[in-house]
Amino acid sequence: MKPELLLSRIRVVLCRPSHPGNIGAAARAMKTMGLSDLRLVHPRTFPDPEAEARATGAVDVLKSAKIDDSLAEALAGAVFVVALSARRRDLGPEIGVPREMAGRLLAEAAKGPVALVFGNESVGLSNDEIQQCHAAVTIPTNPEFSSLNLGSAVQVLCYELRTLAFADNLPAVDPTVTPFSSPLASHDELEGLYAHFAAVMTATGFLNPEQPGRLMPKIRRLFGRARIEKDEINILRGILAATQNTTGHARKN
Amino acid sequence: MKPELLLSRIRVVLCRPSHPGNIGAAARAMKTMGLSDLRLVHPRTFPDPEAEARATGAVDVLKSAKIDDSLAEALAGAVFVVALSARRRDLGPEIGVPREMAGRLLAEAAKGPVALVFGNESVGLSNDEIQQCHAAVTIPTNPEFSSLNLGSAVQVLCYELRTLAFADNLPAVDPTVTPFSSPLASHDELEGLYAHFAAVMTATGFLNPEQPGRLMPKIRRLFGRARIEKDEINILRGILAATQNTTGHARKN
């Protein structure tokens, strides 16, 4: 697949950006590296003249940006999602450096749309948002001052993506996916699986919705890491449904 | 030589920057990557509140920036000098990509101070300025829109410098192991999980042991690929056991 096409399949999602200037800077950073699909989840101020000023010749990327009501909406259809995260979390998706995650994103982009998710300038991504991502990337910084500007972070990652997309040694094959595998599940299919797990776990008393603890994050981490396929989602949901039917049927007796 | 020391020997020189905001962004970009020696040759407006606002926590880099009357003055003492150049010139120094030139800069920094020179936002570096540099670096961009922001260009190059400076010292990131994760499950624990799945699937009628098809191989492929942890085995078997208890309990009624 042509590098230009791979890059066009990479969506950049900004969650709750505070400063319109950073939205413009992100659009410019994307376009210089050949990306164009920008999504904005609850931007504080948009559109805004400051965003257009900072976008300069990338105002087209800004104009075609889609505004979404939730991260889930922005991720619809994406087969692989990477969150930028400045800190290690106790329980989160696997984490890697930009070069490594750029490789993963490009490999998955050959199969369908992928997304790179950035949090708010001050507070980053919420745990709930991180849980919706399959992997995380950290840009290594000076431990005494790790506060990268949002536009600069977008620039660094888009730069790595373009550099790798045009390199000769692009990892064309994802080693975790064997031949004859079915297509990867989309973001919404994965969310459907998690909801089904939660329903079964709650019905059986294994999960107490009042005190959920860390069960669901652990389930998400496991299946997010596995890069689950459509076919496998069907099997797992089939098993879950079968236990529900049995339980329901038994209860009626 | 320690990576921190090598990075501290790399000077960033901005020639005739027009926008004070970009000077602040450059200072911030430098500090996030462990650089601190900023030189300004004929800045149009400096100091300026806009520069301080964009520098955020890197105001110290801004405050200690030296203002020079000429590029020659800014380069005094430097043993190796690389210019950022967006275009190839008929007659100029050798030109390379960021990764390559970051390597050269770090190698030379072991011998003495080195410099990375950036031109004005609109007109770049003059031929006379380019001639004072030993090598040039071009950041590969989208040929249809190559207009990288000055602060973003500083960020990309400082990022490459830090990544390379720490390359040997960086702990190898195993993408499958996240911090605080539990140990990987053993072979027999995995087999126990598969047997438990088979039991539940058979009890619910989802799996017909007479005609098992490819269900179990698919389950094995999924969890084998995920490199499942002990902790995760316990959760999955807990869920399976909970569905069995509910079913069994209901049946007794």
Model description:
The structure is a homodimer of 253-residue chains. Chain A has 253 residues and is α/β, with parallel strands linked by helices. Chain A folds into 2 domains: 3-165, SPOUT methyltransferase, trefoil knot domain (Alpha/beta knot), CATH 3.40.1280; 187-252, Helicase, Ruva Protein, domain 3. Helices cover 47% and strands 12% of the residues of chain A. Chain A contains 11 helices and 7 strands. Chain A has helices at residues 3-8, 20-32, 49-55, 59-63, 71-74, 98-109, 127-131, 150-165, 187-203, 215-226, 230-252, and strands spanning 10-15, 37-41, 66-68, 80-84, 94-96, 114-118, 135-137. The first copy, chain A, has a 7-stranded parallel beta sheet. The first copy, chain A, is globular. Mean pLDDT of chain A is 89; it is low at 170-180 and 249-253. At the A-B interface, helix 2, strand 5, helix 6, helix 8 and helix 9 of A face helix 2, helix 8, helix 9, helix 10 and helix 11 of B.
